[in-house]
């Protein structure tokens, strides 16, 4: 589902709010899985710019998941 950047959407993007327990239940396991994958990458992949890019991409993915859950809590 694509979301247009309406004024109300932008307002929500830049408004801090605490996560509900339901949102935490959604995100915490995903964050832990991303962390475990990152640790495995650090342990198993040679120190290189490619490893750094992989870790950055994983971090970016985790942040986008975080945003998707916080922007669409009712789904």
Detailed description of the structure:
The chain has three helices and no strands. Helix 2 (about 20-45) packs antiparallel against helix 3. The protein has one domain. It has helices spanning about 5-15, 20-45, 50-70. The model has no long low-confidence stretch (mean pLDDT about 90). It is elongated, with a radius of gyration of 15 Å. With about 80 residues, it is mainly alpha-helical.
Labels describing this entry:
75 residues; mainly alpha; 3 helices
Q: Summarize this, please?
A:
By secondary structure, this protein is mainly α. It is built from three helices and no strands. The mean pLDDT is 88.
Proportion of residues in β-strands: under 5%
Number of individual domains: 1
Overall structural class, as computed from helix and strand content, comes to mainly alpha
Query: Got a strand count?
Result: 0
Pattern of helices and strands: HHH
- Main beta sheet: strand number and arrangement? none
Shape assignment: elongated
Average of the residue pLDDT scores: 88
Distance between the termini: 12 Å
Q: Over the alpha carbons, how many angstroms does the gyration radius reach?
A: 15 Å
Relative helix content: over 70%
Q: Helix and strand layout, with pairings?
A:
Blueprint: H1 7-13, H2 21-44, H3 49-71
Helix pairs in contact: 2-3
């Amino acid at each position: 589902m694509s979301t247009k950047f309406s004024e109300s959407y932008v307002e929500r993007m830049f408004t801090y709010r605490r996560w509900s327990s339901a949102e935490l239940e959604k995100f915490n396991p995903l964050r832990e899985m991303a962390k475990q994958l990152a640790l495995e990458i650090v342990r198993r992949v040679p120190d290189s710019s490619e490893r750094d890019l992989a870790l950055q991409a994983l971090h970016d993915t985790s942040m986008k998941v975080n945003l998707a859950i916080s922007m669409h809590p009712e789904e």
